[in-house]
Automatic annotation (TrEMBL), chain B:
Membrane disposition: Multi-pass membrane protein
Keywords tagged on the record: Cell membrane, Membrane, Transmembrane, Transmembrane helix
Gene Ontology cellular-component annotations: plasma membrane
Protein name according to UniProt: ABC transporter permease
Origin: domain of life: Bacteria
Organism this protein belongs to: Thalassospira mesophila
InterPro entries: ABC_transp_permease (IPR001851)
Length: 361, 306
């Protein structure tokens, strides 16, 4: 009786052991879990959509070696922290938080999960396990500015802004420097809608700008509504974050396209190889993190000039924020012969001289 | 003065969805039913209108489908609150949350489609008259419908027997029941009408205002419509004025910005609600005013005595 019991126990133990071993083996082959947090819906066909394209590229590249999860429509605030923590708790080893407002929640959760790696887009605070990354969208905006300067007839640009944060202000400055490089008479009118995503309001803002004489529509909000209004009103404009030609086949001149695919693949690879570091990445046209959608609805010479500008920015021949640069108050911000350092660009809260608008505080 | 006409045109498009859904809600509330699901019904209407228009190529079929979809959702609400006597406030809120999620689910396949916006009326010569032409004779038919419906509602409530019965049901369901009116049946109809109007308002957003589908594209307009009914103290005439005033505020702040006038846009976004609170304070300070207009039985479940 006893012997039998012993035998059984041994067998059971062996089974458990085998199971444990099996589990260990399975764990080694377990996919790397990667989480993504988006501020808008993946269906916004703009900013969040492009991040999700990046996530899909990761899945395609690594197949069943990764398992990705995303949470969309996450408000920037207390809810974000809950979502990020949830992702960390459910075994994600690498988490991308893709909007500026996720910065503090990301750092807070990162402190509680030192073994999880975090990547925060467009922010400036880092930690041992928090890297930051952003794209130099403003380089694309300079190219757009050149096109706009050549295309506008009324010399009035309509600009739909989301929030007056450095990212957006920098874009406006860069765009106007591009426009002035070919047409010094260009003026810009700016409307803030205080939202990244409210198609109705973005569209109304675009209408207001057109009514004020704008004949080029630029947007730094995420829905295609402003461009669509441009199409209906028969003016030209630029797509934001992704190629929006479908919404404006006659109006879109080009679009500043975010291209996260390569970066996301690199970072996932780095985690797999154990070479991941909490560093800061700020890539632009040169590295391909930003690229321009095809130049359409413009004469060949303008398209050629746009192409040339794009190449010169990539090669470094054009330095967008090369001095001398004065702000609106006339204060010299960048000296002649110098180029604005990244730190200044990241904290840019002033308009360059020549912009006839007041920055909301 | 070139900017006046386009400004008015923009105000009209901004006001029409508010007017459509608020007219429906006004009739619903007059019958004694408080449906807080306007936002949800609008979203369902928006995606239905868009999806059907994309699939059939006909905006008219899309608009009809949107109204039917709004009614279908309102029917669920009516069944829960009138037949099963669930709490109207809680059910209405649930309806909104359901509408947000459900429309996003259905709509995920329709993101990124572009459609032709609904054609506007164009009468040769008359539509070309400066200023008056484009404003009065150059709109799409939903704009005319919204104005017609609010006027018709005013006429219905004050001049027709059916309207008086509806108000009686909303003011005292016990009495209305006692003299032989079918309280539940009338409330069902009023709620369905509200659903249809919200569905139309949603279709206006996805087919005219911004001709595309985007998740949560109502962005709070359903709540403004609800506030508007209170703001108008349940009177169609004031509702019309209020809808255009709210539309005007939202558009004017954008115009002010682009004209270089600095107004805090957050303050302007707050104004409709602030105005509603002020109206509430004013009407609450005078009991007779409330009794005259607000349906006395609003939000109360009716249990017919057996």
């Amino acid at each position: 009786m006893k012997a039998r019991f012993m035998k059984r126990t041994a067998a059971a133990l062996a089974t458990v052991g085998a199971m444990a071993l099996g589990m260990g083996a399975a764990q080694a082959a377990d996919p790397l879990k990667v989480g993504f947090v988006y501020v808008g819906p993946v269906g916004d066909f703009g900013y969040s959509y492009q991040h999700d394209q990046g996530r899909k590229a990761v899945e395609e590249k690594f197949g069943d070696k990764v398992k990705t999860t995303f949470v969309e429509n996450v408000p920037e605030g207390a809810d974000a922290e809950r979502v990020i923590r949830q992702l960390a708790q459910t075994g994600n080893e690498l988490i991308f938080t893709t909007s500026f407002g996720f910065m503090n929640p990301t750092l807070k959760v990162a402190k509680q999960f030192p073994n999880v790696k975090f990547e925060h887009a467009t922010g400036y605070k880092r930690a041992d396990n928090v890297a930051t990354y952003a794209a130099r969208f403003y380089e694309g905006r300079y190219v757009a500015g050149v096109i706009a300067g050549k295309t506008t007839k009324s010399n009035i640009i309509g600009y739909v802004g989301s929030f007056p944060i450095p990212e957006v202000v920098r874009g406006i400055n860069s765009f106007m420097r591009g426009a002035w490089s070919v047409n010094p008479d260009v003026k810009v009118k700016i409307v803030w809608v205080n939202s990244w995503y409210d198609p109705g309001k973005e569209g109304d803002a675009a209408k207001a700008l057109i009514d004020q004489g704008a004949d080029i529509m630029v947007q730094h909000t995420d829905s295609p509504a402003p461009l669509q209004v441009a199409e209906n009103r028969g003016i030209k404009g630029f797509g934001q974050a992704s190629d929006m030609i479908k919404f404006a086949p006659k109006a879109q001149l080009s679009a500043i396209v975010d291209h996260w695919d390569d970066y996301y693949i690199d970072r996932v690879q780095a985690v797999m190889d154990g070479t991941w570091k909490a560093d800061d990445t700020w890539h632009g046209l040169k590295e391909g993190m930003v690229h321009m959608a095809p130049f359409t609805n413009m004469p060949d010479d303008v398209a050629a000039l746009a192409k040339e500008t794009e190449e010169k920015i990539a090669s470094g021949d054009i330095k967008i924020f090369a001095g001398p640069i004065y702000d609106q108050a006339g204060e010299l911000r960048v000296k002649e012969g110098e180029v604005a350092p990244d730190g200044m660009l990241l904290g840019m809260d002033w308009y360059v001289k020549g912009i006839d608008a007041e920055l909301p505080k | 003065m070139d900017w006046i006409v386009p400004l008015i045109l923009t105000v009209i498009t901004a006001s029409t969805p508010l007017l459509l859904s608020a007219t429906g809600e006004l009739i619903t509330e007059k019958s004694g039913v408080l449906n807080l699901g306007v936002e949800g019904m609008m979203l369902i209407g928006a995606i239905t209108g868009f999806a059907v228009t994309v699939s059939t190529g006909s905006a008219i079929i899309g608009i009809i489908a949107a109204a039917i979809a709004g009614m279908a959702i309102a029917l669920i609400f009516a069944f829960l609150t009138l037949t099963l006597m669930a709490n109207q406030v809680a059910t209405g809120l649930a309806l909104t949350i359901f509408g947000v999620g459900f429309s996003a689910l259905v709509g995920s396949g329709f993101v990124g489609f572009a459609i032709e916006p609904l054609p506007s009326l164009h009468i040769p010569f008359i539509s070309d008259i400066p200023v008056i032409g484009p404003i009065l004779f150059g709109q799409d038919f939903l704009v005319y419908l919204s104005i017609f419906m609010v006027i018709a509602s005013g006429w219905f409530l004050t001049k027709t027997r059916a309207g008086l019965i509806l108000k009686a049901v909303g003011d005292s369901h016990e009495s209305a029941h006692a003299i032989g009116y079918n309280v539940i049946g009338i409330r069902y109809m009023a709620t369905l009408f509200g659903g249809a109007m919200s569905g139309l308002a949603g279709a206006y957003l996805s087919l005219v205002y911004t001709p595309m589908w985007a998740e949560n594209m109502t962005a709070g307009r359903g709540w403004i419509a609800l506030a508007l009914v209170v703001f108008a103290t349940w009177r169609p005439g004031r509702l019309l004025a209020g809808a255009y005033m709210f539309g005007c505020i939202s558009v004017l702040q954008l115009h002010a910005q682009s004209a270089g006038i600095n107004v805090p846009s957050q303050f302007m976004s707050m104004l409709p609600y602030l105005a509603t609170v002020i109206v509430l304070v004013i009407i609450s300070s005078d009991q007779t005013k409330i009794r005259l207009n607000a349906p006395a039985c609003i939000g109360k479940a009716f249990r017919p005595a057996q």
